[in-house]
Amino acid sequence: MPAMPTTVLVVHRGLITQRDEVADLCQMIAGAIESGCRDHVEIEMSDGQTRYRPTLQAGELELVPLGRLAQAVLRGRYDIALIHEPVPLVHLALAAVLRLQGTAVVHQPITMLGQSYSRGTWFARRTRAFRLAKPFLVRMMRRAWLRAAHGFICVSDFEVVESQLPPERCRVLRWPSPPTGLAAATEHLDRPGPTCLGPVAFVNRFDWHRKGFDRLCAWLELYGDELPQPAVLLCAPVPEAIPQRLSALVDQGLIEWNPTASGTELLSEIQRCRAVMLLSRWDGQSRILREAALAGVPTISTVNSHFSEIVVELGRGIVVDGDDPHSVQQAFRAIGAIVIGPDSAGKLFDRAAVGQELIDHLLDLAHQAPRVP
Questions:
Q1: Confidence band (pLDDT; 50, 70, 90) for 341?
Q2: What is the mean pLDDT of residues 340-344?
Q3: What is the pLDDT of residue 1?
Q4: Domains, the chain, ranges and CATH?
Q5: What are phi and psi of 289, to 5 degrees?
Q6: Angle, alpha carbons 11-291-265 (nearest 5°)
Q7: Residues 102-133: b if buried by 16+ CB within 10 A, e if exposed
Q8: Average of per-residue pLDDT across 237-262
Q9: CA proximity to 87, closest of 45, 137, 128
Q10: Residue 11 and residue 43: Cα distance in Å, rounded?
């Protein structure tokens, strides 16, 4: 008699949107299907309301509606559920019901309920009422999720530590090549390699504190006399009100701002740089660092970018203390001698391999005895 298939449910409330984290998740599932998964594994996806069957059409993931999720959950249809939610409030009740039905619930990721959130440090500059209430609510939500989850899939070892999760219930999964215009442009552009005399590219949405723009300014202010002009090619969108500190550095010629470049144009800009730099205080593993590695450009990042393990495995790039301008300057001097080949990064982010690894992690966690903290 043939073995019953293992049914896996993958949940993200924004499943049918085009948000970045959903695109990454869909690439992982596409990779799982592409790899053939493991024998006797069936995958369904849901936004928390409707269930879908994921299929591959010409290499792209398509979602075929199957009906309401609630009916399938109440019938105990699923063996494993992967709930992917940056701030997991919406699907907490769903996780609890799934656990009651005997489903092994795995969560990804939980960093934003980690150390800085659960201890309240992220809320230091918010209004008084927000500072008093929100950290307490986040701590309560974190405890509820720890009890509801069978295990966790994280993007780095550092995320496990930062989120204060039990290591035996965690697995680390690399993310696949992101399906963005910049990543696609790498297939159609010659690779001249970065110049050791060029600037670094700081490519990100404008988020002064979390993305480390103030750290960038501190480095430029301290070492401006020793740096080329421009020292930084800034590709973030221009905010409505540019901080005076940043505007002064643009006026001095230390920063060149190109807020509109995309696709092949952006890649051309990046490839004249010695590296892509990201001085994040928090990140869920930045797409631009993955794209830089795929494009053959070295990286300068912090441990908070959750990219350190990839830097080590590729043997290219430097991890710095973003709060120490001297550390950033040392990296700027050293990074020009590093040349990274795109092939190694392509293998590392291969979506079929990542998709298969995701299924392997889920099956491994599901077979562990459940532990309630």
A1: low
A2: 66
A3: 44
A4: 6-176+350-366 (3.40.50.2000), 181-348 (3.40.50.2000)
A5: -70, -40
A6: 120
A7: ebbbbbbbbbbbbebbbebebbeeeeeeeeee
A8: 89
A9: 137
A10: 11
pLDDT digits (tens, 9 = 90+) for 110-168: 655 555 554 545 555 556 666 666 667 767 777 788 888 899 998 888 888 877 788 99
Q: Are strands 80-84 and 60-68 parallel, antiparallel or unpaired?
A: unpaired
Assigned token pair, 137: 């609510």
Distance CA 271, CA 275 (A): 8
Rounded Cα distance between 46 and 14, Å, is: 9
Identify the H or E element spanning 168: none
Q: If you average pLDDT over residues 348-356, what whole number do you get? A: 89
Query: Using CB atoms within 10 A of its CB, is residue 258 exposed (0-12), middle (13-18) or buried (19+)?
Result: middle
Query: What is the maximum span of the chain, computed from C-alpha positions, in angstroms?
Result: 76
Q: Which phi and psi angles does 360 have, rounded to 5°?
A: -60, -45
| Structure confidence at residue 373 as a pLDDT band (50, 70, 90) | very low
Residue 124 is which amino acid?
Answer: A
Q: Would you say 37 and 359 are in contact if contact means Cβ atoms under 8 Å apart?
A: yes
DSSP conformation letters of 146-165: HHH-SEEEESSHHHHHHTT-
**Which ranges in the chain belong to alpha helices (H)?**
20-35, 69-74, 92-100, 115-118, 128-148, 157-162, 181-185, 213-223, 244-251, 263-271, 287-294, 308-314, 325-335, 342-348, 351-366
Task: Report d(CA 155, CA 111) in Å as an integer.
Answer: 9
Q: What is the pLDDT of residues 78-117, one digit of tens each?
A: 999 999 875 556 688 899 899 999 999 998 866 555 555 5
Residue 347 and residue 69: Cα distance in Å, rounded? 36
In eight-state DSSP terms, residue 238 is: P
Q: 160 — alpha (psi -120 to 50), left (phi > 0) or beta?
A: alpha
What is residue 241's predicted lDDT score, i.e. its pLDDT?
Answer: 83
Q: What is the pTM assigned to this prediction?
A: 0.86
DSSP 170: E
pLDDT at 116: 53
What is the per-residue pLDDT for 287? 84
Report the distance separating Cα 46 and Cα 15, nearest Å.
7
